[in-house]
C-alpha cells in the first residue's frame, strides 16, 4: 500500500493543543517529485521562499490530496477549502528567523468596514485584513515537510494552547513567552505539522547546513467567512 492510499489516523480534536504532528503522511518519493516540479517552475521568490501559490497546478493538486483534506477536516469540519499556499525555504544562503507571533491576516476578495477587521494592506493585488478570532478559529494550516525538521535547522516552535486566548497584544505575547516553555515541532520528510493560526509560533535561524523547505497550505471551513467577507484564493 502506497503512502497515498494509506489512511491517516487522527487523534481526537477534543484535546486539541492548537497543533498536531503527523509523521510519514507522504513518502519520500512523492515529496521529492513535488519539490522538483516546483523548483522547475517559474516561482516568484523572496528571501524566505515563494508566496501566493494556490493557483499553481502542482500546489493545488497536493492541497486537494485526500490525506491533507482528512487532516484539515479534523480541525475545520467535513469540507475544508484550501485558499492560500506558501513555500518556505530556509537554507545557509537564505537563513532567517521569525519572532513569536500569531498569523492574523486573511486574503479577502473585497474590502469593507467591519468591527474587528483591519488594518488593511494589499499584497500582489490581493486585499488583506487582520481578522478577529471568530474568523481565525475557522482556519488551520498544514505544513508539508520536504526535509527533516530537526533542532539545528530552525524548526517551527509553538506554545501549546495559546490559540484559545484570542488575538494577543505584543505585551501579552511577551509575557506568555517569558513564562512558558515552547515545543519544537520535529518532523521527518513527508510529515505534516497542523497548526491553528492563532497559536503562538516562531522559528530560529538554522545552525546547520541542511535546508528546511516546507509547503504551508491554509484551509478554512468555508470561503464565506464571518461579517460578510469572502476569502480570496492566494
Rg measurement, Å: 17 Å
SS-based class:
alpha+beta
Q: Overall mean pLDDT score? A: 89
Poorly predicted ranges (pLDDT <50, ≥5 residues)?
1-15
- Give the strand content: 25-35%
**Order of strands across the biggest sheet?**
1-12-9-14-4-3-2
What is the C-level CATH assignment? Answer: Mainly Beta
Indicate the CATH architecture. Sandwich
Overview of the structural elements:
The chain has helices spanning 28-40, 57-63, 66-76, 133-136, 170-179; strands spanning 19-22, 45-46, 49-50, 81-90, 98-101, 105-108, 120-123, 126-130, 139-145, 156-159, 183-184, 192-195, 200-203, 212-220. With 234 residues, the protein is of the alpha+beta class. The chain has a single domain, classed as q2cbj1_9rhob like domain (Jelly Rolls, Sandwich).
Secondary-structure map:
Elements: E1 19-22, H1 28-40, E2 45-46, E3 49-50, H2 57-63, H3 66-76, E4 81-90, E5 98-101, E6 105-108, E7 120-123, E8 126-130, H4 133-136, E9 139-145, E10 156-159, H5 170-179, E11 183-184, E12 192-195, E13 200-203, E14 212-220
Antiparallel strand pairs: 1-12, 2-3, 3-4, 4-14, 5-13, 6-8, 7-8, 9-12, 9-14, 10-11, 10-13
Amino acid at each position: 500500500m502506497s503512502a497515498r492510499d494509506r489512511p491517516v489516523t487522527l487523534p481526537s480534536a477534543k484535546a486539541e493543543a492548537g497543533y498536531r504532528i503527523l509523521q510519514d503522511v507522504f513518502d519520500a518519493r512523492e515529496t521529492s517529485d513535488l519539490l522538483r516540479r516546483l523548483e522547475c517552475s517559474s516561482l516568484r521568490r523572496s528571501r524566505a521562499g515563494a508566496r501566493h501559490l494556490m493557483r499553481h497546478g502542482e500546489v493545488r493538486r497536493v492541497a486537494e490530496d485526500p490525506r491533507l483534506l482528512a487532516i484539515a477536516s479534523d480541525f475545520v469540519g467535513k469540507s475544508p477549502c484550501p485558499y492560500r499556499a506558501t513555500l518556505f525555504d530556509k537554507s545557509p544562503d537564505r537563513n532567517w528567523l521569525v519572532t513569536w507571533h500569531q498569523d492574523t491576516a486573511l486574503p479577502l476578495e473585497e474590502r469593507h468596514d467591519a468591527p474587528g477587521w483591519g488594518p488593511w494592506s494589499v499584497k500582489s493585488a490581493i486585499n488583506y485584513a487582520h481578522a478577529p478570532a471568530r474568523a481565525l478559529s475557522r482556519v488551520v494550516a498544514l505544513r508539508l515537510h520536504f526535509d527533516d525538521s530537526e533542532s539545528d535547522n530552525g524548526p517551527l516552535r509553538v506554545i501549546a494552547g495559546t490559540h484559545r486566548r484570542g488575538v494577543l497584544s505584543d505585551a501579552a505575547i511577551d509575557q506568555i513567552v517569558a513564562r512558558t516553555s515552547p515545543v519544537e515541532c520535529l518532523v521527518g520528510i513527508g510529515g505534516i505539522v497542523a497548526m491553528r493560526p492563532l497559536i503562538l509560533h516562531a522559528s530560529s535561524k538554522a545552525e546547520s547546513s541542511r535546508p528546511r523547505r516546507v509547503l504551508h497550505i491554509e484551509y478554512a471551513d468555508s470561503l464565506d467567512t464571518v461579517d460578510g467577507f469572502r476569502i480570496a484564493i492566494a
